[in-house]
Write a structure and sequence with these properties.
Elements lengths: L16 E2 L11 E2 L2 E5 L3 E4 L11 E4 L3 E7 L4 E6 L5 E5 L3 E2 L6 E3 L3 E4 L11 E4 L3 E2 L1 E7 L2 E6 L4 E3 L3 E3 L7 H7 L10 E2 L2 E2 L1 H11 L8 H7 L2 E3 L11 E5 L2 E7 L2 E6 L4 E6 H9 L8 E4 L7
Parallel strand pairs: 1-2
Antiparallel strand pairs: 3-6, 3-9, 4-5, 6-7, 7-8, 10-13, 10-17, 11-12, 14-15, 15-16, 18-19, 20-25, 21-22, 21-25, 22-23, 23-24
Helix pairs in contact: 1-2
């Protein structure tokens, strides 16, 4: 078998692969996976089971992951249900599967041990995190959603799991000023393609995780010969980078130049990036719910 599998998208290794790849891939053994849920606020996925390796992406609380191997050292190798990303993550951040009823829609929200903002918080949940709400209660006029583990979050920070926003670009703009983090996928820090993926998901548009995948598959290709003709919501790609058009001559992107999510004049961004290793614009694409992924 000569097919080459992208390690980021296919649970295939020389020594182990998912059972679905039997007959398609060369591996010493094929196994059934076991589905777990991410219980940590966010969980790093790495290309190897080593803490000194850069992260590829992050799994968010409530997302499901199919695990094909767990090691005595506390590592799990598996594939995210959300976008199909494959990698190594900490077994300590995984637990039993529960069906999500809601998603975090605020940039981030505190999770409390009970329904009271005066309680010391247990941590922060980022936009896109999934939770199971079992009830609601009001404390001093503020409504809290009670989660399946007994903890609580402010109810107005959540939306139903299948909720879609009309203007996903406005959601991307809410991340303005968020620190740039290579491999990050939360409102505490994220990279260029995660910004686009997380925002688009709020509009019901599922797209791949990394910029090269998005450039090849997200939405439909459009001309980028005249940047002034691009519309709000159009994606512009460079080698290893993506940003979104928010208005005339305006690009929003998580970038290593400002190390934040920032606006930049499109003409200036094109000239600046052309002078770097990333070079000229390579493609433009337009998203729609009909053209998701």
């Amino acid at each position: 078998m000569s097919q080459i599998f992208d390690r980021r998208r296919h649970p295939v290794r020389a020594d182990l692969a998912a059972i679905d790849y039997e007959g398609r891939a060369d591996a010493a053994r094929f196994v059934e996976g076991e589905v777990f849920q991410v219980t940590a606020a966010r969980l790093a996925l790495r290309p190897e089971p080593r803490l000194d390796r850069s992260i590829d992406t992050e799994a968010l609380c409530g997302e499901w992951v199919t695990v094909y191997e767990q090691t005595p050292e506390g590592w799990a190798w598996g594939q995210l249900d959300t976008d199909g990303y494959v990698g190594w993550l900490s077994s300590d951040g995984l637990g039993p599967v529960k069906a999500a009823t809601h998603r975090v829609r605020a940039l981030r929200t505190y999770r409390y041990p009970g329904p009271d903002l005066k309680f010391p918080p247990l941590g922060l949940l980022s936009m896109g995190s999934r939770v199971t709400v079992t009830g609601e209660t009001v404390t001093r006029g503020l409504t809290y959603a009670i989660l399946s583990d007994g903890s609580a979050v402010v109810a107005k920070h959540l939306v139903p799991a299948e909720h879609c926003t009309e203007d996903w670009v406005a959601v991307a703009e809410e991340f303005l000023g968020t620190p740039y983090l290579w491999g990050g996928r939360s409102s505490l820090g994220l990279d260029c393609s995660a910004l686009i993926q997380l925002a688009a998901q709020t509009g019901g548009i599922d797209i791949p995780r990394d910029s090269d995948m998005q450039e090849a598959e997200a939405g439909e290709e459009i001309s980028h010969d005249d940047p002034s003709s691009l519309h709000r919501g159009d994606l512009l790609f460079w080698k290893g980078h993506v940003g979104v058009i928010t208005g005339p001559n305006t690009l929003l992107h998580a970038n290593g130049h400002t190390m934040t999510v920032a606006y930049e004049r499109l003409d200036q961004a094109i000239a600046r990036i052309a002078a770097t290793e990333w070079g000229e614009v390579t493609k433009a694409r337009r998203l729609s719910r009909d053209k998701a992924d």
